[in-house]
Design brief:
CATH architecture of the largest domain: 3-Layer(aba) Sandwich
Subcellular location: Cytoplasm
CATH topology of the largest domain: Rossmann fold
CATH superfamily of the largest domain: P-loop containing nucleotide triphosphate hydrolases
Radius of gyration: 26 Å
Largest sheet: 5 strands, parallel
Shape: globular
CATH class of the largest domain: Alpha Beta
InterPro entries: AAA+_ATPase, Chromosome_initiator_DnaA, Chromosome_initiator_DnaA-like, Chromosome_initiator_DnaA_CS, DnaA_C, DnaA_dom, DnaA_N_dom, DnaA_N_sf
GO molecular function: ATP binding; DNA replication origin binding; lipid binding
Oligomer: single chain
Number of helices: 19
Distance between the termini: 51 Å
GO biological process, one term: DNA replication initiation
Number of domains: 4
Number of strands: 10
Strand content: 5-15%
Order of helices and strands: HHEEHEEEHEHEHHEHEHEHHHHHHHHHH
Organism: Croceibacterium mercuriale
Helix content: 40-55%
């Protein structure tokens, strides 16, 4: 088997696992309820499946959340996976080894649990310093600036992040990246680390979550080694701290972080923090620390707009070439999955996995059928009545024509467009849509949807009309 064939098999296995996970998640959402699901299941990331042992890894962003899920939900997750895929015998819950939790780094010695030196941590006295050090531990190698899709929603944060990693000293420090879940703040944090390694081959980088910072702090405090802890932490050239919201309420850890910030800034070092809320919204954080966090640049990553969502989908599709995904499907996903970039990419992967495993072509109807849960969670509540009013106004026809039996082209085509939009923008079934259009049969609605899909591909004027109507309805 060639390398390309092995890669293709691995990709197929990955999308098959993702499809099974999407089905399991759908069931857990219904069983656990919104609050438990949102807090504990949604953050889970799918890890690899070891075929030899039947062990599947599921990753969570923090030690606390991993322990909570392991104690209360591991049996349920294991059972769900055994039902979905017989080869899964054990489910292992852990902190993500690449994104959220670095290798266990002892700040007292600068070594990880395997005796390796900290990433980019300068040579030991016996070292010659002739060779550059390896890439930082704890950073995901796939999360680089090259892989980050930029648009108006994140251009400030992207540019600020690149400036923070540049060879010349940045004009601001610290950099504070603020974004909701799944919008790219952690990606930029890792990208800064990778780029800094290129511009500063001998620079010393430390990446951790706020929770990890607190764990190391408490361990040093209990063992009476605070002086060594402080010395090690303040010896880094770039400090990257993720999920800062988890430091809330930890007074002693906050104080140490405050002193560390002051010490590093005084030496011209670089600091980057990431959190899901602005510094002023961090409840339980003392004012002096809030002041330090706000004194540099606070870069807010806004939810991705539709153009950025289109770009992200196209960038992800490159991985699946030569698989073809129609442009109307990309447009549909970009318009309807607007809440979270992670959900957007997950929806695309699930759709492709289903198509590959069943031998079906990717289509708008397939997307509607297979992504029900994701789509319903993201849709703006648009009614069929609203669609009919908007379409009638656009084409300058009377509202009664939506339910009439007239077959004139000037009436039929707007009616078909309205049926198409009703299917795209509402969760209504074909029979339900038919009843809103004068009691028409569901087959009539299916015909209208397929016809407009086809016309959008062949007729630029029709595609322009539909795009204009979509903007009016979704604004």
């Amino acid at each position: 088997m060639t390398a390309a064939e092995r890669d293709a098999v691995q990709d197929a296995e990955a999308v098959a696992l993702a499809a099974d996970w999407a089905d399991i998640v759908s069931g857990l959402r219904k069983d656990l309820g919104h609050q438990l699901f949102t807090q504990w299941i949604r953050p889970i990331e799918l890890g690899p499946l070891c075929k030899a042992t039947g062990t599947l890894d599921l990753y969570l962003p923090t030690e606390f959340s991993a322990n909570w899920v392991q104690d209360r939900l591991q049996d349920r997750l294991a059972l769900a996976w055994k039902i979905a895929r017989a080869e899964v015998r054990t489910v292992r819950i852990a902190v993500h080894p690449g994104r959220r939790k670095p290798v266990d780094l002892d700040l007292r010695t600068g070594e990880d649990g395997l005796g390796h030196r900290a990433a980019n941590d300068g040579p030991r006295p016996a070292d010659t310093g002739a060779e550059p050090l390896s890439a930082p531990v704890g950073l995901d190698p796939t999360l680089t600036f090259a892989a980050f899709v930029t648009g108006t929603a994140n251009i400030l944060a992207r540019n600020a992040a690149e400036r923070m990693a540049a060879a010349e000293q940045p004009q601001f420090s610290p950099l504070y990246l603020k974004a909701a879940t799944g919008q790219g703040k952690t990606h930029l944090l890792h990208a800064i680390g990778h780029a800094f390694t290129q511009t500063h081959p001998r620079g010393r980088i430390f990446y951790c979550s706020a929770e990890r910072f607190m764990v190391d702090f408490v361990q040093a405090l209990k063992s009476g080694e605070m002086i060594a802890f402080k010395g090690r932490l303040r010896g880094f050239d770039l400090l990257l701290v993720d999920d800062l919201q988890f430091i809330i309420g930890k007074a002693s850890a906050q104080e140490e972080l405050l002193y560390t910030i002051d010490a590093l800034l005084a030496e011209g070092k670089r600091l980057v923090f990431a959190a899901d809320r602005a510094p002023q919204a961090l409840d339980g954080v003392e004012p002096r620390l809030l002041s330090r966090l706000s004194m540099g640049l606070v870069a807010d990553i806004q939810p991705a707009d539709i153009e950025l969502r289109r770009q992200i989908l196209h960038s992800k599709l490159a991985r699946f070439a030569p698989l073809s995904v129609p442009e109307d499907v990309i447009e549909f996903l970009a318009r309807t999955i607007s809440r979270n970039v992670r959900e957007l990419v997950g929806g695309l992967h699930k759709l492709i996995a289903y198509a590959q495993l069943t031998g079906q072509e990717v289509s708008l109807l397939l997307a509607e059928d297979q992504l029900t849960d994701i789509l319903s969670a993201n849709r703006k509540r648009i009614t069929i009545d609203e669609i009919q009013r908007t379409v009638c106004s656009f084409y300058r026809i009377d509202r009664s024509e939506m339910a009439s039996k007239r077959r004139a082209r000037a009436v039929v085509r707007p009616r078909q467009v309205a049926m198409y939009l009703a299917k795209v923008l509402t969760p209504r079934s074909y029979p339900e849509i038919g009843r809103k259009f004068g009691g028409r049969d569901h087959s009539t609605v299916i015909h209208a949807v397929r016809l407009i899909e086809d016309l959008r591909q062949r007729d630029s004027e029709m595609d322009g009309d539909v795009r204009s109507l979509l903007r009016q309805l979704e604004d």
